[in-house]
Every structure is written in C-alpha cells, then in structure tokens.
C-alpha cells in the first residue's frame, strides 16, 4: 500500500490551470465506529478548471469523502479548506455560508419532485435569501434571470414550468446540475452523477460537468465507478482503496497494475 | 424421503402457543357469558320496543326544523369547522416536533408525543364535560373540545407523514446552505402537503359527527336539541334531528371525498 502511494506521488501531474477557487483536503480521517476508519488519511488538492474523477470499489469511502467536504458528514479529524477557508471549525450560519460555495450533484438527482423545474433551480439560492422570501417565492430578479440562463445552458428552458417528476433521468440530472451551479460555487462535487443513467446520457452529463468547470472556472470532483468514463472525461484520476488514496495522476498513467491495486483481482480486466 | 425434509408451517412450540391462545379465548368467552347477566324478558320484547319507538317517531316533525333545529345545526357545523382550524394551528408545530427526522431534539420529541397521547387518550365526551365545567355550557366549550381532541389525530398523522418523506431532497437543500426553515418550506412541505390537507379534511369530517354528539353533555350544537327532545319524549323531534345529522354527515362525506380526489 505504502509503496503504491509513493509511486502515485511520482506520477505526472495533470496540467490544470491554477485558479483562486480551490479545495484542499489535509489528513482527513473519518470513523463511523471508533477504531474502524472509513477514510484513513486523505490528502487532496484541486484547483482551477480541473475535472477530477475519484474511482474505487463500492464501500471504499468515496461518498463519505464528498460528504465530509460539505460536512453533511462530520469528519473525525483533518482539515478541509475551500478557497482558503477552513470549514471544519464552522458552525451555524457560518457553515451554511460556506456550504453555498460548495455545489453538489447527486446520484438520485435529489430534486423536490412536486416543485417545478424553475423552482428546483432557484432552490440553489436558498442559502442566500431569507426563509420569508423563499416562502413567498420572492426571488430577486437577477436570480430568476440567471436561472433562465442556466436552463438555456442545460437545454431545458421549455420545461421551466413543468413539475420535476415529469422529467426523465437525464433531464433531472441536468436540473440538479443547474441547481448546484445556481449557488455560484467555488467547487462542484458530483456523487456518482451517471450511475442511474444510460451510457449515452452519462456521456452527455459528463460533458456538461466539464463545461460547467470551464465556464465557471471551478474545479469539479466526480465520484464515478465507470473507469472508462472517468478516464475519458477527467484531467486527473484519484484511485481510492480501503480508505486510502492509492493512485493520483493523469488518466494516461493509470495502468492495469493500478486498477488491480484499486479494485483487487484481475479477471474483470480482461 | 428422508426425515429431515418434512416441512410444516409451524414449529411444535408455535403449535402449542396457538392452542393455548385458542383455549384462553374460549374460556374468556364462556366467562363473559356468565357475567353479562342478560335478562331474558327484556331480550325477548326488544323487537316490540323497537317497533313501538318507530311508531312514536312517525311522522317526523318536519315543521319543527325552522323553529328548533336549523340554528343549532349551523352551530354544529361552526363548532366542527372552527375547532378543526384551531387544531391545525397547534397540530403543525406539534407534528413537526414529533417527527424525529425534522426535529432532532429528543426532549422535544418526547414532549410532542406526550401532547399527542394525552389529546387522544381522553374520550371526546370526557373532554366536553371538562370544558363545560371550565367555560360553562355552550359553543365555546364545544369548539375547544373539538380542537383539543383533534390535535392528537392530526399531529400524529402529520408527524408520520413528515417521517416518511424522502431524505434526498432534504440533503440537497442542506448542501446548498439553506437555513432550517427554508429546508422545511421547500424540502419537507412540498412532500407532505397533499397528506396534510387530506388529514385535515378527514378530521373535519370526523368532527362534524363528533360535534353533533357533544351537545348531550352541554357543549353546544345539535346534540343539545337532541338531549332536550329525548328528555321531553318528543320522539317525532328526535327523529327529525337524527335525519338532519344523517343528512349532514352524508353531505360532508361526499364533499370531503370530492376535494381529496382533487388535491391528491
């Protein structure tokens, strides 16, 4: 294991432009039960318009890692810096303000089914407006215009008034991405965004995530179990196994040896 | 055909337990027959009594409606409606407190459970007796009775609806940095609102029936007119009041069913 980490550190670094919007994870550890860490010691820095794919077998802590970053799950120890701000020490309204800068896209889309597409996109602004205005649906005009622009970008303008449960899976995920971008995030996390979708739609969603990264000049972190898809769209691949990072480099450097190390066994590689 | 491949639905212990349950039930039934003390003469002339009652009730005194029933019938509907509205105001916060996924303070969960259980454990007529003692006989006592009694029903079902709502959208709104109230308004409420209005209408339907009875102990409404007619042996008026209650309950039922279909 240790040797593999060393080899990871010597591999080529992806050519991502350095930006002011960044994520730094330092010595992150997470234990659900004491003494049984799900994440052992994660160190990760992403910046610029870089799309990073996190690959690894089920149950290796990929989802836990993403949820620690926006503290939907409390890390046990370590530091997480979003654009330089340590979010692990924040509480209450400070934590909510920090979460606004972290967009998240989910495997099951997590839209509010009975609300319209427009309102779901505007939900990305709930961290910015008061509950009173949210209740009265008094969203600022610039938010509404931005929401329309985002619906144009994801190609769903004509569905603005449709209810979210009328959409197909791919359309719902586009709404989910629009909602996350609506937050004007500094980083975008995507937890298995394509796992519930067909291959063609999956490619479209990955292309959309890359577009979001370049248009907004933000790093995107994608948990993905489809290695081929991850390799194809990522600037950088992080391989995780049993709570550790065992590969970190450009997709071209990811060999079958690495995959064996990440997933175990080799019969499936044939 | 080896011995270990025999299959029976119940294990020997289960069969034994089932036999014991049946035996106890049979003993209890025999025992209750001995204690109920049926007087055969009264049982025998029951059909005669029923026929006599119907004879006295016929013809129904429809002329009495305008003079003695209309006002109290409207009053009954007012008690049911106002009582239900008051309940909603209290049952929403109590239901939220009861839902352990929305309110993560165990002490508040317990407090809510306590309020819900105490509201439901006391019978409507007992609540009515209590509030007649507090407020004196009349509509106010009836309205408060209906309101207090309904909190348990509406609050419990609303809380359960909240607990069954999907966690995904809630997670997404929390991840966007939404404050608690916004998460409730945009995450939970859209999911539970059809259930909530269904529960409220159903409770109003029940309350129309309950508010026609609580007058028997002086808590206002058509029950007071019924009590008076019974005491004075005006059986034709009793018949009229029963017909009116029946009609109102049927109309309420039809109305509620129609609205529920539209909101769900």
Automatic annotation (TrEMBL), chain A:
<dbReference type="InterPro" id="IPR003593">
    <property type="entry name" value="AAA+_ATPase"/>
</dbReference>
<protein>
    <submittedName>
        <fullName>Phosphonate ABC transporter, ATPase subunit</fullName>
    </submittedName>
</protein>
<feature type="domain" description="ABC transporter">
    <location>
        <begin position="23"/>
        <end position="267"/>
    </location>
</feature>
<dbReference type="GO" id="GO:0016887">
    <property type="term" value="F:ATP hydrolysis activity"/>
</dbReference>
<dbReference type="GO" id="GO:0005524">
    <property type="term" value="F:ATP binding"/>
</dbReference>
<dbReference type="InterPro" id="IPR027417">
    <property type="entry name" value="P-loop_NTPase"/>
</dbReference>
<dbReference type="GO" id="GO:0015416">
    <property type="term" value="F:ABC-type phosphonate transporter activity"/>
</dbReference>
<keyword id="KW-0472">Membrane</keyword>
<dbReference type="GO" id="GO:0016020">
    <property type="term" value="C:membrane"/>
</dbReference>
<dbReference type="Pfam" id="PF00005">
    <property type="entry name" value="ABC_tran"/>
</dbReference>
<dbReference type="InterPro" id="IPR050086">
    <property type="entry name" value="MetN_ABC_transporter-like"/>
</dbReference>
<keyword id="KW-1003">Cell membrane</keyword>
<dbReference type="InterPro" id="IPR003439">
    <property type="entry name" value="ABC_transporter-like_ATP-bd"/>
</dbReference>
<dbReference type="InterPro" id="IPR012693">
    <property type="entry name" value="ABC_transpr_PhnC"/>
</dbReference>
<keyword id="KW-0067">ATP-binding</keyword>
<dbReference type="InterPro" id="IPR017871">
    <property type="entry name" value="ABC_transporter-like_CS"/>
</dbReference>
<keyword id="KW-0813">Transport</keyword>
<keyword id="KW-0547">Nucleotide-binding</keyword>
<keyword id="KW-1278">Translocase</keyword>
């Amino acid at each position: 294991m240790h040797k593999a980490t060393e080899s990871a550190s010597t591999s080529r670094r992806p050519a991502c432009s350095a930006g002011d919007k960044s994520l730094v994870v330092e010595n992150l550890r997470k234990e659900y039960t004491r003494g049984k860490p799900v994440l052992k010691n994660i160190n990760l820095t992403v910046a610029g318009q870089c799309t990073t794919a996190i690959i690894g077998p089920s149950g290796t802590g990929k989802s836990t890692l993403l949820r620690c970053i926006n503290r939907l799950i409390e890390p046990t120890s370590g530091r997480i810096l979003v654009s330089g701000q340590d979010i692990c020490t924040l509480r209450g309204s400070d934590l909510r303000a920090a979460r606004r800068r972290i967009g998240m896209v989910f495997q099951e889309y997590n839209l509010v089914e009975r609300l319209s597409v427009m309102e779901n996109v505007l939900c990305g602004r709930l961290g910015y407006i008061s509950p009173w205005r949210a209740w009265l649906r008094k969203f600022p005009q610039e938010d509404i215009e931005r929401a329309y622009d985002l619906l144009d970008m994801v190609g769903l303008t004509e569905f603005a008034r449709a209810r979210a449960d009328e959409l197909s899976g791919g359309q719902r995920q586009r709404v989910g991405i629009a909602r996350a971008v609506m937050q004007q995030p500094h980083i975008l996390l995507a937890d298995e965004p394509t796992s519930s979708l067909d291959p063609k739609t999956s490619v479209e969603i990955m292309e959309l995530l890359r577009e979001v990264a370049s248009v907004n000049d933000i790093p995107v972190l994608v948990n993905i179990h489809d290695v081929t898809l991850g390799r194809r769209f990522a600037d950088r691949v992080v391989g995780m196994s049993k709570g550790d990072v065992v590969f970190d480099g450009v997709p071209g450097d990811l060999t079958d040896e690495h995959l064996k190390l990440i997933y175990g066994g080799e019969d499936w590689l044939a | 055909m080896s011995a270990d491949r025999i299959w029976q639905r119940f294990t020997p212990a289960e069969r034994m337990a089932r036999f014991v349950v049946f035996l106890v039930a049979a003993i209890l039934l025999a025992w209750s027959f001995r204690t109920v003390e049926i007087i055969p003469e009264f049982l025998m002339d029951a059909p005669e009594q029923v026929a006599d009652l119907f004879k006295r009730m016929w013809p129904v005194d429809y002329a009495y409606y305008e003079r003695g029933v209309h006002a109290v019938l409207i009053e009954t509907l007012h008690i049911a409606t106002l009582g239900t509205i008051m309940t909603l105001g209290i049952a929403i916060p109590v239901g939220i407190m009861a839902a352990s996924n929305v309110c993560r303070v165990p002490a508040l969960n317990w407090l809510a459970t306590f309020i819900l259980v105490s509201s439901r454990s006391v019978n409507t007529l007992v609540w009515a007796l209590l509030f007649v003692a507090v407020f004196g006989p009349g509509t106010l006592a009836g309205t408060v009775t209906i309101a207090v009694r309904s909190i348990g029903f509406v609050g419990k079902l609303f809380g359960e609806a909240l607990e069954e709502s999907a966690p995904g959208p809630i997670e997404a709104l929390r991840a966007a940095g939404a404050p608690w109230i916004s998460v409730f308004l945009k995450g939970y409420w859209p999911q539970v609102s059809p259930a909530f209005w269904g529960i409220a209408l159903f409770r109003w339907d029940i309350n129309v029936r309950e508010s026609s009875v609580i007058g028997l102990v002086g808590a206002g409404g058509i029950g007071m007119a019924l009590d008076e007619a019974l005491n004075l042996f005006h059986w034709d008026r009793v018949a009229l009041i029963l017909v009116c209650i029946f009609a109102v309950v049927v109309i309420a039922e039809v109305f509620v069913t129609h609205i529920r279909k539209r909101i769900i």
